[in-house]
User: Which sequence fits this backbone?
């Protein structure tokens, strides 16, 4: 997997300063890079590490290019360069197109060209698998579901019936797409299940983390638009819509029929109530609880920062007294107004 610096600079569309024939064979962190590695500087606080860095080359900005004595690849966004190069040096095995002998594929299913179907994969009636898509071991694709081209589903992903996704979708192990939404009607203490007759529609270039669940719609579809990234262990309830380019960190949860705008960033562990809307460009700090619609872009947070347990107990007592204190303050304000009047 060795690459010359000349090839790397051309691949990145970046300027090379130094010996273009130098070979690099792996990526490494700035403080651990050795000869044969290429690394990057994206955060100025790590500049001191350049003095002792033993990498064969460093990717950095024009501003910092002269701080490293060895070969440098200069571009405006070194972290983006790292993202692109990671695919060149990815050690994940490359598999040839094949359909494993243990796969169970319905006669009415359609397989595109150059697909990779792993061991014990199940593809149900009328499902469609796009060109160059890979389904790893024990993946299940439900009836009538459609996958686009160049998708990659890791082991044990379950896609229920009536799910549609675009091209270049990546779904990590254990994710469940199209499971029933949490819909029930109560009659005299007895829960009656509501059939979830909608589906799930996922755009292109979407990535879904391990053990994340996306429920199908109750009537209309649950929708994940293009370029959305979802981390591990996220719950997306029925009829949720997530706009283009949004990102959600691990263990977040979104209740039913909520709409999240485009280019939103949802911190880990955040909880978003149902039947509300978040505007485009909303950012939620980790563990934020959202109970109402957010109509303007910006950064939002809830809760309090960490304290010692003894201090937290005192704070909880004061929280309970806030309403009473507010009433007293209002009463005092009226008394002051009367005195000044």
Assistant:
């Amino acid at each position: 997997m060795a690459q010359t610096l000349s090839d790397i600079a051309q691949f990145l569309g970046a300027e090379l300063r130094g010996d273009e024939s130098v070979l690099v064979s792996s990526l490494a962190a700035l403080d651990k890079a050795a000869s044969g590695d290429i690394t990057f500087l994206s955060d100025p606080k790590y500049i001191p590490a350049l003095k002792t860095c033993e990498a064969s080359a460093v990717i950095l900005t024009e501003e910092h290019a002269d701080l490293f004595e060895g070969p440098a690849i200069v571009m405006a966004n070194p972290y983006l360069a790292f993202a692109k190069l990671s695919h060149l040096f990815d050690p994940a095995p490359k598999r040839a197109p094949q359909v494993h002998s243990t796969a169970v594929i319905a006669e009415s299913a359609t397989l595109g060209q150059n697909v990779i179907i792993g061991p014990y994969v199940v593809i149900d009636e009328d499902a469609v698998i796009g060109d160059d898509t890979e389904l790893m071991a024990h993946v299940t694709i439900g009836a009538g579901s459609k996958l686009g081209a160049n998708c990659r589903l890791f082991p044990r992903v379950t896609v229920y019936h009536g799910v549609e996704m675009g091209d270049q979708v990546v779904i990590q192990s254990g994710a469940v797409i199209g499971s029933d939404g949490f819909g029930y009607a109560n009659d005299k203490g007895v829960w009656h299940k509501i059939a979830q007759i909608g589906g799930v529609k996922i755009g292109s270039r979407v990535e879904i983390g391990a053990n994340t669940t996306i429920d199908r719609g109750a009537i209309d579809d649950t929708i994940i638009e293009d370029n959305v990234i979802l981390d591990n262990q996220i719950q997306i309830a029925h009829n949720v819509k997530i706009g283009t380019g949004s990102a959600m960190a691990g263990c977040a949860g979104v209740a039913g029929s909520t709409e999240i705008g485009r280019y939103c960033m949802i911190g880990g562990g955040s909880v978003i109530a149902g039947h509300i809307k978040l505007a485009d460009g909303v950012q939620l700090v980790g563990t934020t609880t959202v109970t109402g619609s957010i109509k303007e872009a910006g950064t939002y947070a809830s809760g309090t920062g960490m304290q010692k347990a003894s201090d937290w107990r005192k704070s909880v007592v004061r929280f309970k007294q806030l309403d009473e204190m507010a009433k007293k303050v209002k009463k005092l304000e009226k008394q002051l107004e009367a005195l000044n009047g």
